[in-house]
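INFO batch 0412 | record 1 of 1 | parsing
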Amino acid sequence: LKKRKKAKAKLGIQIIDRNSVDFICKCTGFDYETLKQPSREQHYAFARNIIFDHLREIGFSFNEIGLIFNRSHATVMHGIAKKNTFLALKDPLFLTYYNRFRKNYSQ
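INFO prediction complete | emitting tokens
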């Protein structure tokens, strides 16, 4: 039996500096170090999901976003799906974080 070589994962990591990540996080009202933590509290999850979606919209891959926030690509995908669900349901708590991000990011 021949041993097969494992395919190496190719990551086209985009460069994003720490100041940019800090700014995007602060637009939600939280700092990067807080959002990078493994907490599943709803207000942190809402903020992370909004940021996941924003980074995806500007061209980051699921893997790249996951690496920035110490999450798997599947968590990022799930977070973006949850963001879209809460937005469609017009969840009042979610909308406060979403509108805060939009207001602060556009300034």
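INFO post-check: The chain has a mean pLDDT of 89.
INFO record closed
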